Amino acid sequence: MHFTKVGLTGGIAAGKSSVAELWRTRGATIIDSDSLAHATLAPGTPTYRQVVAEFGPDIVNPDGTINRRTLGEIVFNDAARRQKLNNIIHPVVRQQWTQALAETSGVRVVVIPLLFEIGAEAEFDTVVVVGCSAPTQLARLTAKGLTEAQAGARIRSQWPMQQKMDRGNFVIWNDGSRAVLDRQAELIWNKLKEN
Questions:
Q1: N or C: which end of the chain has fewer CB within 10 A?
Q2: Segment holding 154, helix H or strand E
Q3: 5-194 under CATH 3.40.50.300, yes or no
Q4: Whose CA is closest to 114, among 33, 193, 178?
């Protein structure tokens, strides 16, 4: 089997971006669904208009951009509202990364935090999951300025880490040093390139 379409997922703050960046330096094409999602919220886009219509003018900054922190407070404390947001954004983002896969070649890595949650695993030759312990997630998120309550809400909005790891073809465990993460990412990269 030739692994040219790789899904990269894992828990929030587990280290997906670090793995993707290392693989980019090795020659992978990285398609980041979070970046695509942020772009769909740019003022003037159809997605932006839908989100503002759904969540109201309180989520809009004075410069017209969406205040993602305010929107996050709404959706990470209300599963039904979060599902509404996902229903607006995910189909557009999925269309964009599907198109990007079609337009590129070589090893293409699509970083999708909610890959299993949206049922996208069949789109890929292999799925790599980056995991870490809950205390590590909490520490990393609070270091980024979230309160423990905010961090906990974000962690709980995703599938449990173990459930994701059980479904992955490869797992990187990122509870240690950056050197340990890089070594695991390198080993898996070599396996992806072998095939």
A1: N
A2: helix 148-156
A3: yes
A4: 33
